[in-house]
Amino acid sequence: MYGLGGDRWKMASGHGSTRLASYGAVLATVCLAAVTVPREARADDDDLAVYRDRFRLGMEKYKEGSVGEAIRVWSAIYEELGTKRGYRLAFNLARAYDTNGEATRAAERYHAFLDEAAARRARGETLEPLVEREVHDAEERLADLNSSHGRIEIAAGPDATLAQIDDTDPRLGAFVAYVAPGRHVVTFGPGKADAEKIEVDVAAGEISVLHATRAPEPATRPGARLTVDPIFKRVTKHPFTPVVLYTGVVLTAGSVLAPGLAYSHAISIYDSYNASTSTIPERISARNAYPGASTVYYGLLAVPISLAAITGGLTTWYFAGAHEENVVVSIDATPGGGTLTARF
Predict the structure, then answer these.
(1) Same structural domain, 163 and 244
(2) What CA–CA distance (Å, rounded) separates 37 from 49?
(3) Where would a tag sit more exposed on the chain, N or C end, judged by fewer CB atoms within 10 A?
(4) How many domains does one find in the chain?
């Protein structure tokens, strides 16, 4: 079924249906195992159960021979889980890519699976026997791919480069492509007028490292004139921040409480003096206390009145003293492309 390497991965003639059913059953078990890891090993992965139906859908597609559809379903789950939680699925995807003849993608998923398995071992985790067998199979299959294919490594550079090998889909950044032995054309910047093409011969088991030889074109050529066109926005400027006004309003409102209490106290004294039930000594005491209470009231009342006057004056100044002015909000610079945004 997995027909890309040694005899182990090929279907013997006359036994195709038997091998297909056998490998399909194994892969189904592996797929479900990816979401049925023991609770003690993955206490935080209880939510993986929600992916089981989608796993089964991918398995059905795989058994029907729609390997591309199975890859699409499983890849979506793998992206959601991430390389750590979904590392078991990386092994299954590698198998599916292998079956589909996509050696580069298969090798990448094998490596992702092996890297996470090694990381778990380094943390002292014990891998299940099934995972250990998968690790052995992945290492063996990678060795087969490395010996039967040539490899073209697009090296990383200071700037990400779009590279295309033959007529495959272009990829951005560094990667390793598994190719058939022979001559291949690597295009840097495909689709551009100044695309760079490099021919390379790669033998089986060999790796060729390539990078774009042409330096990236500078944003502005030496001696080129830079034209700067500022873009203005008309804004209203006030003499001070509106926080001052908000503070004045709050203080004025709060200062009303004290004279209100003083007024209530003075009124209670006045009512005590006029009450018919008051005795002569009580009236004398109220008459003597009322002037002082009244004075306190008027003194406290002056505070909110003053604050209200000050706040009113500030409000008048805030609006009357406002003026409009032009502020540069962006600069359009050419050549070089792009807009530089200024803060104000």
Answers:
(1) no
(2) 10
(3) C
(4) 3
pLDDT in tens, 62-114: 889 999 999 999 999 999 989 898 888 899 899 999 999 999 999 999 999 99
Domain range spanning residue 30? 1-148
Q: Do 120 and 34 fall into the same domain?
A: yes
Helix (H/G/I), strand (E/B), else coil: 133? helix
What DSSP character marks residue 315? H
Do the domain assignments include residue 222?
Answer: no
Are the C-beta atoms of 105 and 145 separated by less than 8 Å? no
Q: How far apart are the first and last CA of the chain?
A: 65
pLDDT over 90 (residue 157):
no
Mark whether 118 and 13 lie in a shared domain. Answer: yes
pLDDT at 2 exceeding the cut of 60: no
**At 332, which amino acid appears?**
D
Which contacts qualify for 140-145: CB closer than 8 Å, 24 or more apart?
140/8, 141/2, 141/5, 141/9, 141/94, 141/98, 141/106, 141/110, 142/107, 142/110, 142/111, 142/114, 144/4, 144/5, 144/6, 144/9, 145/4, 145/5, 145/103, 145/106, 145/107, 145/110, 145/178
